[in-house]
Write a structure and sequence with these properties.
The chain has helices at 10-19, 34-43, 69-75, 80-90, 160-166, 172-180, 187-190, 378-384, 390-408, 412-415, and strands at residues 3-8, 56-62, 104-110, 115-121, 127-131, 137-141, 146-156, 195-205, 211-223, 228-232, 240-245, 248-254, 261-264, 267-270, 277-280, 283-286, 292-294, 299-306, 312-317, 322-332, 341-342, 347-351, 361-368, 371-373. By secondary structure, the protein is of the alpha+beta class. Helix 3 runs antiparallel to helix 4 (80-90). The longest helix is centred in the last third of the chain and has 19 residues, at 390-408. It is globular.
């Protein structure tokens, strides 16, 4: 466990003090004439002059395996009453039991020793800040981030994973590509060592350059002497993936969570909690807690509530007797009720870890009658029905190739005719 002690001046304390209801008045120097100060007060509508707050000290701990919020706060010298206040207020926005190794906990106190805030920062960069006082409150602070677009071209000699690892490219992409390409090829068997792989992805970075959250693929090109496979994540439909072969659209996959990582496919698998091989009736999409969950197709809400190991669940009925199910949610969309009409892309709730799960993720199912079908294959074809018009997908493909050229320069893969 690492610990950092930071001495914060008044500048760094500004946002915190605003939350703690400090007056945001301009401070006048005591050396200024009384008449000048009186005039300033009159011009400001006789508002009381702000009292300059004392300096503060921030103590920070990085969460290690086995740590709890209560134990960490106690270690930082926070008394039992304040620990209870912080935990109770925090629970309105974030379950303290979901602390993970690597999360950062910061307690800010006045130099008198009185704590004024408790903050938890997740690996996504999102902060949950509790402002202490007579009525503690919790707010969510999104990070200030820059989005970088990165591109790389590699030759595959043995496997996808080995090729990415050798070039310092996020190896998580290997799992994503193997799952998404599963309907077109067996990557372990069909990759011979003569393929060239091109990737384009985005990363969110803090001002200090550190990455926040997972990287997001936006384009993949895989070429061998016989065919060219490409995948594109349209910029305006990040939950959709388009698969192309030799420039022609082969398949479209739509996901209910933006930027999620597919951690468990449909079919038999080893159960992550109980062990043993069991049937998996949907797909698991890992994403940070609080990530919006969207309907994949138009329909009507048929259930909102809890269902055993599924935790918080939303079910949507579609045409042709099909149903999509979204589970393990942390919360439901405000005002969502049974009977509501839903369009594709409407928010149903947020990713969470309710029910029986090992961490924040969305378990997503599609059922025909009561028969589960692969939500990324048969289920998607049934509930979506229509395919995009040729001009729509061709423009998306050409735009993605253009972004790739800008990132890594023209190559044989991109320079092939734009059929």
């Amino acid at each position: 466990m690492t610990r950092r002690w930071l001495l914060l001046g008044l500048v760094g304390l500004g946002p915190l003090l605003a939350e703690a209801h400090w007056q945001e008045n301009t401070l006048l120097s005591p050396s200024e004439p009384a008449s000048t100060r009186a005039q300033a007060l009159t011009q400001r509508g006789s508002a009381p002059l702000a009292v300059q707050p004392p300096e503060s000290v921030a103590q920070e701990l990085t969460v290690a395996p086995g740590d709890t919020l209560n134990a960490l706060l106690q270690q930082l010298g926070v008394n039992a009453e304040t620990r209870t206040q912080a935990s109770t207020s925090l629970a309105e926005r974030f379950d303290p039991r979901r602390l993970r190794p690597g999360d950062r906990l910061t307690v800010t106190s006045l130099t008198t020793g009185q704590p004024v805030s408790v903050a938890i920062e997740r690996d996504s960069g999102i902060q949950y800040v509790v402002t202490l006082g007579e009525r503690p409150s919790t707010r969510i602070v999104s990070p200030r981030l820059d989005t970088l677009t990165l591109g790389r071209e590699v030759d595959i000699e043995t496997s996808l994973y080995a090729a990415l690892a050798a070039e310092g490219i996020p190896t998580r992409f290997a799992v994503d590509l193997e799952v998404l390409l599963g309907g077109l090829m067996d990557t372990a068997r069909d990759i011979s060592g003569a393929e060239r792989l091109q990737l384009l992805w985005e990363e969110d970075r803090r001002e200090d350059g550190t990455r926040v959250g997972p990287p997001r693929l936006t384009y993949m090109g895989l070429a061998d002497p016989s065919a060219r496979l490409e995948m594109v994540w349209p910029t305006d439909q990040r939950a959709t993936v388009m698969l192309f072969k030799d420039g022609s659209l082969v398949e479209t996959k739509r996901f209910p969570v933006l930027g999620a990582r597919l951690t468990s496919a449909f079919g038999n698998r080893r159960h992550p909690v109980y062990g043993g091989v069991r049937r998996h009736d949907g797909v698991d999409l890992a994403a940070p807690r609080g990530t919006p969950v969207m309907a994949t197709a138009p329909g009507r809400v048929s259930f909102v509530g809890r269902r055993g190991g599924y935790g918080r669940v939303v079910e949507v009925e579609h045409e042709r007797g099909t149903l999509s199910r979204y589970t393990h949610l942390s919360r439901f969309a405000s005002g969502l009720s049974v009977g509501d009409a839903i369009n594709a892309g409407d928010t149903l709730g947020e990713v969470g870890a309710s029910g029986l799960t090992t961490g924040p993720n969305l378990h997503y199912e599609v059922r025909v009658g009561d028969r589960p079908v692969d939500p990324l294959e048969e289920g998607q074809r049934i509930i979506l029905g229509e395919s995009p018009a040729p001009q729509d997908y061709r423009s998306v493909l050409f735009e993605a190739r253009g972004r790739l050229q800008k990132a890594i320069g023209t190559s044989g893969l991109v320079a092939l005719d734009n059929r």
